[in-house]
Write a structure and sequence with these properties.
mainly alpha; 598 residues; 0% strand; 81% helix; 30 helices
Amino acid sequence: MKKALALYRSQNFKQATTKEADILYDLGKIFYTLGQLDSIRVYSQTGLTIAREIGYRQGEAVNLANLGVVFYELGQPDSAYVYMQAALKISNEIGYRKGEAYQLGYLGFGFFNSSGQLDIARGYFQAALKIAREIGDRQIEVYQLVNLGNVFYELGQPDSARVYFQAVLKITREIGDRQSEAAALGNNGVIFNALGRPDSAHVYFQAALKIFREIGYRKGEAIFLGNLGLVFSGLGQPDSARVYGRAALKIFREIGDRQGEANQLSGLGLMLLAMPDSARVYHHAALKIFREIGNRKGEGIQLSLLGWGSRADSARAYSQAALKIFREIGNRRLQAVPLFTIGLAFVALGQPDSARVYLEKSLKIHAEIQSPIAVYAININAMNAINAQVNQRYIAMGDAALTKDQFDSARVNYELALADGKKFGYAAGTLSALGRLSFLFHERTFRFPEAFAIDQQRLQLDSTDLSFQADFAEKHFTTGRFPAAEKRLAALLLNLKVEVQVKIALAAIQIANALAQNKTQQVPAALETLQQNIASQPDTFQVGWTFEGTKHFISQNEKLAPYRAWLLQLFQALESKEGREAILAALREARKNFRIQK
């Protein structure tokens, strides 16, 4: 190519300069493949000068675009944007549609890679793809399909991305474009890695690496050496991972690709998550480069990663700085991680309410972008842990008030726990609060209708819980629903899954329920069965059921007035904490005292 340029310069015909500008542009493309950015800039700048001198507008456009690409690679997106817009303006004016498609694609690349503004990037890529298909340029079509696949990957839609990358692979093989074929293989590998299939990813990365080495594209070689390093890291082979990662870093430094160097330093940091001090060294080095080249997206990612591996105060500071950048550049997807990290920092700082605000925002983004299930689950688990912490705080305050017979204070705290659990969809907390309120209303304040309503809510949330069903059966009795109580008690006493202590407590309530319905003939046999069941228990047996609500109801209900004293004796016997024999002795005494009242 250099000989051809010298030949053209030796000629004296006018059109030589046009050819010279084209050759200089082609030389720039060759050096881009070799990753030699300084050489690209020299040849493209010379080609631009010649094109302007002779009024060769197409040559001016393509060399401006080449210089724009250089600035993108150098991590100077603002300068790149200026050059690319200038190139696009000329292409539009002269009707150079191929150039227009290229330049639209590169403008999209700038928004995608530097600022992370995915919607804007997608608009440029789709416009470029439309032109490529209209003019039948399959090479440009490939580039835009790759770009769109990358957008969908960043949006957390790997299956959609893979559709684009598979289409690219098919076209590149049909047209014999080996560099794009390698890139497509590599992109498919990225998708498989994201889907948790590292073995498949490894196959694709190796195939891409082989092609890049054969065609001498050193930047591509470095990228996929780095990707292979991450695969080995994920497979738990840190030594192999670092070998590949360092080989990639060496190439990026040799070809002067500072953005590639920064990305690879970050990758090496990710490989050392188990060694946070060493990882931070790499992330700080990457952060320094991203700031120097003006890559705000890269800067934000490194701040986010530094936050993830730091103590609470530092984690919050790094993550808030990252969050600020991601919001400024409009990249919503990347905001999820620093929001999550800030939430965890507030957990460590003992501020669960603040933690929950950030974790809820992070969870919302993960849901919007359809993050992988594993990532979503981590966020859900953290949110549940915070919900539990807040819920337990309210419950603990309620319990403390209850031990001091401060019933109103206990109720307020339990109701706060209930409202909080419902608001944040924390089912365990909701059930815990309902259980406390049920106990308070039934066993302490004797507000039986409210206790009944509370248990209805509990069973709506979990109708299979036998302990809830047992409580609800008792509340049918203490609200005077005697026939319904009879049915529920009978069903539970026949259920083999109900614990023996619960069955004994329910059998005693069944006796009281029978007396309330004047079914006195059932009592002697029920007492015999009750005594036999207790006699078969261990020496240390206790019923472990509080009958305060039931006893209060008995003391107030007129239908039970004839048996009131005897029933209170029966329940008092079952409340003994002195073991099986003490319960049996008290029960025998109660049996002796039972008399059917006329």
